[in-house]
Every structure is written in C-alpha cells, then in structure tokens.
Design a protein that fits this description.
The complex is a heterodimer of chains A (about 375) and B (about 325). Chain A is mainly α and about 375 residues long. Chain A has 14 helices and four strands. Chain A folds into two domains: about 240 residues, no CATH class; about 110 residues, abc type-2 transporter like fold (3-Layer(aba) Sandwich), CATH 3.40.1710. Chain A has a four-stranded mixed beta sheet, with helices on both faces. In chain A, strand 1, helix 3 and strand 2 form a beta-alpha-beta unit. In chain A, helix 7 packs antiparallel against helix 9, helix 9 packs across helix 10 and helix 10 runs parallel beside helix 14. Helix content of chain B is about 35%, strand content about 25%. Chain B contains twelve helices and 14 strands. The longest helix of chain B is centred in the middle third of the chain and has 16 residues. The relative contact order of chain B is 0.15. Classes of the chains: A mainly alpha (about 375), B alpha/beta (about 325). The interface between A and B is medium-sized, with 25 and 31 residues.
Chain lengths: ~375, ~325
C-alpha cells in the first residue's frame, strides 16, 4: 500500500464528485428529502387530529357538554352541522366522511339514567359515514372508545380492567427517531453500491483501468482509495441527514462510536458487492440494473422505511437474511435503544458478511487481461 | 554491445490464443533502443494484443517477451516504472483539468521530479492547462494522453493507434509531438493502420496481418524489396479508360472511387496507356507517376487494403 498513490486517487475522486454538481446534489439531497417527507408525514401522525362533523339535534346543555368532551379528547376538530339539514346529504355535498348525529331527547334520557338510575334509559348516536374513506374506520373506533368511557362512568362502578402504558425505553421516542437510523443505513448502502458500480464500469469502459494497470498503482491502492472515498461521502451524507433531523424534527438520538463503525461496515459490505457486480456485468447499464435489483428489495424489505413486523412471516424471515436489516437494527440499537450488546451482535453479523463479500470483491476485480 | 544494451524489446515466438482464435501467431522481432518502431496492420491484425502483452497488461499463451532485459510476465512491477503507455482510445477523468490529470498520473509514479508544465508545453497544451478533460477535442485528448505517458520520463513509450479517429489536422498535430519524442531519443513503439504515419515517423516498420508478421524493415527497404516498380495514378477516369487499362493487361493495384493506380514495369508503359486512352476518346482529369508506398506494399503482401480512408471522427480543436 502506497499512501501517496492512495491520496492522489482520493483527491481525484473527490474533485470529480465536487465538480459533478448534479450528482452531488442528488447524492446528498435525496436521503434528506426522504427524511423531510417521511418525517413530516409521521410527525403529523404522532399528533394526529381528525376532522369531525357533529349534528346536535337535542340542542341542550348536556349535548353541548358532550361535544366539548369530544373536543377535549384532543383527537378531533369539531365542525357543527346545522340541525335542520339532512346529514346524509351533508356528507355527500361537503365531501366529509362522517357526521355524528346526537338525537333529540339526549339530555332527558341522560338525566333519567344519571339522576333516576333508570337502567332502561338510553340514547342511540348515529354515525353517518362514507365507507369509501380510509380514515373513517379509525375515527369511529376512537369515538367508540370515548363513548365506552362515558358509559363506564355512568354505570357508577369502577372498571374491572384498567390499563397502564410502560415504554421499554427510558425516553419516549417518536417514529422519526426510529426512521433516521434506517435512512442513514439505506443512504450509505446506495452511495457505496452505486458509487462503486457506476465508477468502476465507467472507468473500465473508458479504458482508464487499462491505463492505470500500466502504472505503479496496485489494486490494493485503488480499492483502499475507493473505500476511503465512499466512507468520506457516507460520513458527510450521515452528518447532513442528522443535522436536518435535529434542526427540523428536534430528534433525540444517541451518537457514539457505533455510528462510524456501522457506516464503515456498510461501506465495506456494499463496495464489496459493487466490485462483484462490476466484474460480472460487462456494461454499465447491466451493472446498474443488477445494483437496482439488489438495492430496491433490500430498501423495502429490511425495515428501513417501516418495521418488518408489519410484513408476513416468510418475508420477515427473508428480511433477516439481508445485510441492510442488520445495519438498520444495529444503528437503532446504538442510536435509539442505547443497547451496546445488541449493537455488538448486529455489528458482528454485518462485519462477517462485509469481510466475506469484500474479499470476494477483491478476488473478482481484475485489471490484467483487459475486458 | 550486449543484446540487452542494444534492444529495448525482444519478442521471441510470441503466441496469444483466445480459445480457438489465434490473435498473435508465433511472431518474433526486436526493437532497438532509441528507434521508432511501427506495427502496421489493419484492425484485428493482432497489433494491440501484442503491444498489451509487452506492456504487461496481457499474458502470452507461449513465447518469450523481454522489455529492457526483463521478462514481462515476471517483472511487471519494475517494468511499469520504466515505460509510458498511451492505450488505444485513451480517455481520462472528465472533470479533471489537463494540469490535474498530468499531476495525478505523475503522483502515481513518484512525481517529485516531474516537470508538469514542461510536459504540458511539450504537447502544446499550455493554453488548455486549466481546461477540464471533457471539454477537449479528440486531438487535444490524445496529446494529454501522450503527456501522461511521459510523466515518469520512460525509456520506452508505447502509443497504440494514437491518431485513429482524428481528422487530418489533429493527426498532423499529434505527429509533430511524436517527432519531438523521436528527437529526444526515446524508444517509441507505435501501432497504427495509417501508412503515412508509419512512413513519416518510423525507423522500422513491421507489417502484421492475421496475427503474423509478414514483412519487416525500414519503410524504404520494404518498398524496395516488395514493390520495386513505378505506379501510375490516373485521377477521375471514366468507364471507357478503365476498360482500356484492363484490356491492355496492366495490373491495377488500387482503385479508389474514380482514381486508379496501375503497376507499370517501365516508364514507356505510361506513354502506351496514355496514348491508348487518348486514341479511344476516353478521359481522365490528372495523373502522376511515382514509387509505391507502404499501402501498396501491404496490398501486394496481403491482398487487402490497409487504410480505411481519411478519418473524420475525433476532430481538432
């Protein structure tokens, strides 16, 4: 290994990257855009508030109080519907998916139940809804929960089953905090895999590799400079993603030595896969297609975007064979759960995988004999 | 003088096979130190395979190749430090400037004593020093390639088809640079399929066809030995004149559109042909009589044309 040669190669690669403004923008901006888009979606889901239309046919203090209770629940923003309009027509005309109708006699029946303990006194609240709407079922389930609570209170007896929430984590985490480590792992994978495939096939097609093979640069120097280059880009990309996540979403993530370790393992694993693909795919397009065929399923199946528990059993088993799964879980173990032992286990698995594919990649990449 | 001191390259019974295909078939030759040696042959003749074996990029199937006294299959590490290579269809990093490109390749060697500006000056690229490679024309790119082939002050320079695809002006500019190398006393191994290039630059020419060397010597010797007869060229002949030449029994050595080249034994034959054409009322636009060149030598030896005509691909600036 010759540090001067590795340095010269690294400088050329960084210069090319810096001067290729479009590629630089998409390399760094794409994962940030993903974080902004998904972060915004999931942040609003954490503080979700549904629009609820209520038609109060009773128009009494009690019915008004019940509407206020729904509002104070925090899940609904209430719009009052004129009691004189047809609620079904209102749903159709105003493109709302649900109108809750409080019937006439609500207060009278409530008094009978609460004051006179008449067990037969009851009211029926009607949901007039559009079944084609995807969120209407969730709304009705929340409403059912609220009304079950009111019924329990009116019964005058303490509930038999009570529930309490206890998180396994010291702090309360939001979805964005689980999401960011997954996106870092995915972005580093994409950078390393496509960076290697695109660069190697382009240089091979241009004959630069052939020229380099008539200079003192060795394959070791070349591969080492490529690893360093991909690692620098990956670190820059990860820092940019973290800065945006802290600035925009005020994330709470634990940053320690595991972060660069997992980034380095990510780089080694996917540069290795990239070298193998470049060896077997003769043309740049077929190498890129092969890289796509590997990276896309991995992105969606290894839990970068959503937990693998949402997938069918056989896909969960399959996910656990993917290297990106171990990078996602390893980064979450260190950045979210602060569980060093789990991080070590995931690092060991991905470390062994990275070592194997990297060695295979070195063996697969040949300079002599040309194409 | 020992063989090692006299010869930069010694190739002995070199063969390279790809499966059943023999790309190079039992060839032997030597290149003296300080000479310009041209490998002349059409595409697919085996030029690049041979040169890439000497450059240590490929391994021979059989035979021995020594470069500066070193076995190319065993001493790659030492050899690459003493040679400069311009590969066929050379290209470099798009976004790197001329100066940075030369500097980069210089650092791959050692770079401490490389006169970067001197090299850029040598290949007449002073005014393009800060231009990115992607913005250069074909001719300028080739000159960058020659500059980086010289960054380690090599003892032997390999130039694999340095002017292929360039237009005539760009080609002449590259030739000027190569003539400069010749004056500096570098050993130059040149592969080409342009006979003008070989005639102009080479001290020794080896004609290769279908993996075999079929003739070798100085351009003058090759012509003297293989095509020692005058050639009459008639320009823009009509069909009638063409027919007359055929019926008179003269060997037509080349035909290019409406120009024909005819092998004649004596200058008297020229007069006979011209009189016959005139008597028959046929026509031609111009004529010349001269000694044959390497192209005609190649045609005579192989039965096929050498040049693919004037190139128009990569242009000059």
């Amino acid at each position: 290994m010759n540090p001067r040669v590795v340095g010269a190669n690294l400088v050329v690669k960084l210069r090319c990257f810096y001067r290729e403004k479009t590629a630089m923008f998409f390399t760094l901006a794409f994962p940030i855009i993903l974080i902004l888009v998904f972060g915004t979606i999931f942040m609003s889901e954490d503080n979700v508030s549904y629009h609820l239309c209520v038609q109060d046919l009773d128009r009494t203090k009690s019915s008004a109080q019940s509407i206020k209770t729904l509002e104070h629940n925090g899940k609904f923003k209430i719009t009052k519907v004129d009691p004189d309009v047809n609620a079904t027509q209102y749903v159709r005309d105003n493109r709302v998916n649900l109108v809750l109708v409080i019937p006439k006699g609500y207060q009278r029946h409530l008094m009978q139940r609460a004051m006179l303990s008449n067990p037969n006194a009851s009211v029926t609240i009607t949901y007039i809804y559009d079944p084609s709407s995807s969120s209407v079922t969730t709304k009705m389930e929340i409403l059912n929960g609220v009304f079950a609570g009111i019924n329990q209170e009116l019964s005058g007896k303490p509930p038999f089953i009570r529930t309490v929430e206890r998180s396994i984590l010291a702090k309360k985490y939001r979805f964005i905090e689980f999401f960011v480590p997954g996106i870092i792992a995915m972005a580093v994978m994409t950078l390393s895999l496509f960076g290697t495939v695109d660069s190697d096939t382009e240089l091979r097609q241009k004959g630069i590799i052939r020229k380099l093979s008539t200079t003192p640069i060795t394959r070791t120097d070349w591969i080492l400079s490529n690893i360093l280059y991909q690692f620098i880009l990956a670190v820059i990309s990860a820092i940019a993603m973290l800065l945006v996540s802290y600035a925009v979403f005020d994330v709470s993530l634990h940053i320690d030595a595991w972060l660069p370790v997992f980034i380095l393992l990510d780089v080694f694993a996917f540069v290795g896969i990239g070298m193998i693909l470049t060896r077997f795919a003769k043309e740049a397009q077929s190498a890129a297609a092969a890289a796509n065929a590997i990276s896309y399923p991995m992105m969606f199946l290894s839990g970068s975007f959503f937990p693998i528990e949402l997938m069918p059993g056989f896909l969960q088993t399959f996910a656990k064979t993917l290297p990106l799964y171990y990078l996602n879980e390893g980064l979450r173990a260190s950045m979210v759960f602060e569980d060093n032992m789990a991080a070590l286990r995931y690092a060991a698995v991905i470390g062994i995988f990275a070592a194997v594919v990297f060695v295979l990649g070195i063996l697969a990449s040949k300079w002599e004999e040309g194409r | 003088m020992t063989k090692e001191a006299e010869y930069a390259i010694e190739v002995d019974k070199l063969t390279k096979r790809y499966g059943d295909l023999s790309a190079v078939n039992d060839i032997s030759f030597t290149v003296r130190k300080g000479e310009v040696f041209a490998f002349l042959g059409p595409n697919g003749a085996g030029k690049t395979t041979t040169v890439e074996i000497i450059e240590t990029i490929r391994t021979p199937t059989s035979g021995n190749v020594h470069l500066l006294g070193m076995d190319v299959t065993k001493k790659k590490h030492d050899i690459v430090r003493r040679i400069g290579v311009l590969p066929q269809e050379f290209s470099s990093f798009d976004r790197i400037t001329v100066r940075e490109t030369v500097q980069y390749y210089s650092r791959l060697f050692s770079g401490r004593n490389t006169d970067i500006d001197g090299l850029i000056d040598l290949v007449n690229l002073k005014d393009k020093t800060n231009e990115q490679y992607k913005n250069l024309s074909g001719g300028l790119r080739q000159r960058v390639g020659i500059a980086i082939a010289l960054v380690n002050d090599p003892e032997v320079v390999f130039l694999d088809e340095p002017t292929t695809g360039l237009d005539p002006r760009a080609r002449r500019e590259v030739w000027e640079v190569l003539q400069g190398l010749k004056k500096k006393g570098k050993t130059v191994f040149l592969t080409t399929h342009y006979m003008e290039e070989a005639e102009l630059l080479a001290d020794t020419v080896a004609i290769i066809s279908k993996g075999k060397i079929i003739a070798m010597g100085s351009p003058g010797e090759l012509v003297e030995k293989n095509a020692n007869y005058p050639v009459l060229t008639l320009q823009s002949v009509d069909e009638k004149a063409l027919e007359i030449v055929r019926t008179m029994g003269f060997e037509q050595v080349l035909s290019n559109h409406k120009d024909i080249k005819i092998r004649v034994e004596h200058t008297d034959d020229v007069q006979k042909i011209l009189s016959a054409i005139k008597d028959a009322g046929a026509s031609y636009l111009g004529l010349d009589v001269r000694k044959p060149n390497l192209e005609e030598v190649f045609l005579k030896l192989t039965g096929e044309a050498l040049s693919d005509g004037p190139a128009g691909g990569r242009g000059a600036e």
